[in-house]
Amino acid sequence: MPDHSELLNSLTHYRKAAGLTQSDLAEKVSVSRKTINTVENGVFVPTTILSLKLAKALGVKVEDLFQLPSSV
Amino acid sequence: MAKKENTENLSRQRALILMFLASTYLVWQVPSMDWIADANSASRSWADNIANAGQILWAVALMVLVVKGKKTFKRLSASAQAVMEDDLVKAHRSKAIKIGYVILMGAILALFLMTRFIPMTGSDMSRLIMAIGVATPLYTFSLLELHGA
């Protein structure tokens, strides 16, 4: 069950665009592959620190990776 | 690649040991309860044997977890240690404690109501409450860690 069903994330898109596998990205930010998988599937909402690390590893802004729907 | 596989295996092993620890604690505590003593002597002796075996297995599992687990963790690189204790693991631990607390409170209420109809000794009550309080968070954490691993 998702931690926050309203959170939209584009992590998969940016990871694939960077040519990385889940394992590659996990290694870059020192988390498990499962953590990346659960973030991508919306099961786990990452902490601010992890979001910043992910954004830095992919060379994008945090807001590019995670957004709230415009209605919120 | 080998390092990544290693941390995944270690996480799985940790979850399995914790689950084993919870199970042995139950095997130790439940047969030690007073209502078993009220049963006939043959079943009492079986219950004692099971409880003793559970206690020994629990002690061994705890030792493996503390001694071997600590050594293994220290031997890992800093990044592998971070992977073993990453945000998801912390979230699982926190969720397991929350679920454990709710189930424990529910169990205490259920036991309180049950004692109005079924007599139960204070010793049995404490054993049951301890068993639920110890086993529920361990099982929950292990299942969360193993799910989709």
Structural class of chain A: mainly alpha
Number of helical elements of chain B: 6
Give helix % range of chain A.
40-55%
Question: How big a fraction of the residues of chain A is strand?
Answer: 5-15%
Characterise the protein shown here.
The complex is a heterodimer of chains A (72) and B (149). Chain A has 72 residues and is mostly helical. Helices cover 51% and strands 6% of the residues of chain A. Chain A contains 5 helices and 2 strands; from the N terminus they run βαααααβ. Chain A has a two-stranded antiparallel sheet with strand order 1-2. In chain A, helix 2 packs across helix 3. The longest helix of chain A has 11 residues. Chain A is globular and about 35 Å long. Helices cover 85% and strands 0% of the residues of chain B. The model of chain B has no long low-confidence stretch (mean pLDDT 88). Chain B starts with a helix and ends with a helix. By secondary structure, chain B is mostly helical. The relative contact order of chain B is 0.17. The chains are: A mainly alpha (72), B mainly alpha (149). Chains A and B meet through helix 2 and helix 3 of A and helix 1, helix 4 and helix 5 of B.
